[in-house]
Amino acid sequence: MNPDGVGRRQHFQGADIYWNFAPGAHVIGGAIRDKWNTVGAERNDSLLGYPTTDEMGLPDGQGRMNRFERGVIYWSPANGAHPITGLIQDQWERSGYEQGRFGYPINDQYVMDGGVAQDFQRETIFGFNVIVPIAGPQQPTEHIFTPHSQDFAGVDRYGAFDAGVDYDVSTTYKMYWSFVVAPQLRAIATSNKMTCKAWGLQDGRASGYHDNHVDVPMDYGWHSTIPEHTPGSNYLLAGNCNFPVNAGGKNGEANVGFRFQYEIWTD
């Protein structure tokens, strides 16, 4: 039994097998297993959690990878094994994984101006999370809208996000929201254009909501409306904006993201 009291593992000469209820049993070995152990292995407070795939080879015939509950580890002969998570993982995967514009990771994530960064073979990806309510270890409850608390506004060093529900004129409980990238990040941008995407979940499933903008100005006041909420359901709005930057003397791509978890109640 593993330290979490739930999972199981068995060690073999060539690799290990780890099992948990949701991901099932998966093989992990070699340099990927060694790196996984250094970032906390399967523990609840670890970087990655349990493996959700077996270790597998990649199309180039050289690299290997494992996918985990909260990220991936990619290995290549020249650069070794490195975890990729969060906003950096989102941008890297959208750009074509190891065969895309960035290539393989050459180091682990590191702190850069309060955000995180990771160097790849051809370029760096920078990730900046805008702080808004999201349920988790540090924020156990999401934001709740009521007729007496119809609005939310949050500002930090990376962006400004606000949202609201107009109970007086709406019976379908639409939520309107907006987001602006902070001047601090606009100052390191090497282009005056960015691409922004948003999507939503309802009770953990895709809600069908999407909002996309390509090549909008860096100071664009991104705004949208999500219609037809069900009172008491749990919703997640997630979004991100991408643009080229120069930070710490490195050229790369910034991924600025927000995640807003909320419910709408009628009383």
Topology overview:
Elements: E1 8-11, E2 16-20, E3 24-28, H1 30-38, E4 56-57, E5 64-68, E6 71-76, E7 80-84, H2 86-94, E8 110-112, E9 115-119, E10 124-130, E11 143-145, E12 151-156, E13 159-165, E14 175-181, H3 183-186, E15 193-202, E16 205-217, E17 222-226, E18 235-247, E19 250-264
Parallel strand pairs: 10-19, 11-19
Antiparallel strand pairs: 1-2, 2-3, 4-5, 5-6, 6-7, 8-9, 9-10, 12-13, 13-14, 14-17, 15-16, 15-18, 18-19
Task: Summarize this entry quickly.
The chain has 267 residues and is mainly beta. It is built from three helices and 19 strands.
Structural class: mainly beta
> How many angstroms does the end-to-end distance come to?
46 Å
Strand content is over 45%
Query: What is the N-to-C succession of helices and strands?
Result: EEEHEEEEHEEEEEEEHEEEEE
Name some characteristics of this structure.
eight-stranded mixed beta sheet; mainly beta; 19 strands; globular; 267 residues; 8% helix; four-stranded antiparallel beta sheet
How is this structure best described in words?
This protein is mainly β and 267 residues long. The chain contains 3 helices and 19 strands. Strands 8, 9, 10, 11, 15, 16, 18 and 19 form an 8-stranded mixed sheet that branches. A hairpin with a 2-residue loop joins strand 8 and strand 9 (115-119). The longest helix has 9 residues, at 30-38. The protein starts with 7 loop residues before the first strand and ends with a strand. The relative contact order is 0.13.
